[in-house]
Design goal:
- The complex is a heterodimer of chains A (about 190) and B (about 130).
- By secondary structure, chain A is mainly α.
- Chain A has helices at about 10-30, 35-55, 65, 70-80, 95-120, 135-170, 175-180, and strands spanning about 5, 185.
- The longest helix of chain A has about 35 residues, at about 135-170.
- Chain A starts with a strand and ends with a strand.
- By secondary structure, chain B is mainly α.
- Chain B has a single domain, classed as Orthogonal Bundle (Cytochrome Bc1 Complex, Chain D, domain 2), CATH 1.10.760.
- Chain B is built from six helices and four strands.
- In chain B, the strands form two sheets. A two-stranded antiparallel sheet of chain B has the order 1-2. Chain B has a two-stranded antiparallel ribbon with strand order 3-4.
- Chain B is globular and about 70 Å long.
- The chains are: A mainly alpha (about 190), B mainly alpha (about 130).
- The interface between A and B is small, with 11 and 10 residues.
Chain lengths: ~190, ~130
């Protein structure tokens, strides 16, 4: 029987589930509970900063160098996945790795536009002073962009989940469980 | 039938249909009226607009007029954030009451902040009717 190895370190797992919770909270609270929405956004933003740092100094499979490959490799992996022939990677596969990068960028932009919108609309938060003399047009542009990015991120999450399901089925392993306890079988 | 004939048929039809389609804000008012008891009134809207609500935490008094002024043709200034608020009167600011999503968003946020609760459909309808007349 194949032995279990540690793949995802505690920082990665905590980061992943913090993202899940804060994104859901922020998405659902939206305008209804602004204070909670903003708090969720701050925690999410802080988590991304930690993740970026961890991508350079973290454990093996946490590093960007471990999973960021070329778009061609990612595309190739997708093709292989569709024909159920994709090879198994213990860390992120090339398509999954690219998705992590895109999700990180999309989430970061969502947070930044959110903080800017909070500054423009409520003159509050870290960017408040930037918008003291700004026109109402800025609010509309930021509002639309923030919403668009949030929905785009949701779309990415859906694709990410499809990928997780596909890889789990192809390689007969439970990737959700691995993101909870950090382990995978070695081969 | 060539393309010109099609256009010549469609264009007058399009122009004809414009007045027949309700403005989005009227659709919203209609939605509110279905769950309200009394017909909307600009007077009642103005009364609530001027009404002062004590906010115990900050020991201040809040009202719509405190930030938006009671003359909607004028620029307002938020009493806490000091943000300059463009006039609400559609007669001087034609973008007002055109974007329903924005109207709903700010009615929700500002009722919560000012009254300490969400406004009822009746109150929101009264507010919009009051603003519309300006």
């Amino acid at each position: 029987m194949a032995q279990e190895i540690k793949v995802w370190d505690p920082v990665i797992r905590l980061f992943h589930w913090v993202l899940v919770i804060t994104f859901i909270v922020a998405y659902l609270t939206e305008d209804d509970f602004l204070d909670l929405h903003v708090l969720a956004g701050y925690v999410l933003g802080a988590a991304i900063i930690v993740r970026l740092f961890w991508g350079f100094v973290g454990t093996r499979h946490a590093r960007f160098s471990d999973f960021i490959t070329s778009p061609g490799a990612a595309f190739n992996h997708l093709k292989e996945t569709l024909s159920f022939k994709a090879p198994r990677y213990v860390g992120h596969n090339p398509a999954g790795g690219l998705m992590i990068l895109i999700m990180l960028i999309s989430l970061a932009l969502t947070v930044v536009t959110g903080v800017a919108l909070y500054g423009a609309e409520e003159h509050a938060g870290p960017m408040a002073t930037l918008f003291i003399d700004s026109s109402a047009n800025w609010e509309d542009v930021l509002d639309e962009t923030h919403e668009l990015l949030a929905n785009f991120t949701l779309l990415l999450v859906a694709i990410h989940l499809l990928g997780v399901i596909a890889e789990s089925l192809i390689h007969k392993e439970n990737l959700v469980r691995s993101m909870i306890n950090g382990s995978k079988r070695s081969t | 039938m060539n393309l010109h004939t099609v256009y010549m048929a469609i264009i007058p039809l399009t122009m004809l249909s414009i007045p027949l389609v309700a403005a989005p804000i009227d659709t919203l008012l209609n939605d509110y009226s279905e769950i309200s008891t009394a017909p909307f009134s600009a007077e009642r809207g103005q009364q609530l607009w001027m009404q002062e609500f004590p906010h115990t935490e900050s020991n201040t008094v809040r009202s719509c007029a405190a930030c938006h002024t009671n003359e909607l043709f004028r620029e307002g200034k938020h009493i806490r954030t000091k943000k300059i608020i463009d006039p609400l009167a559609p007669s001087v600011n034609s973008t007002r009451l055109t974007d329903v999503k924005k109207v709903k968003k700010w009615l929700k946020r500002n009722c919560k902040w000012t009254l300490g609760r969400e406004c009822t459909a009746q109150e929101k309808g009264d507010f919009i009717t009051f603003i519309q007349a300006k």
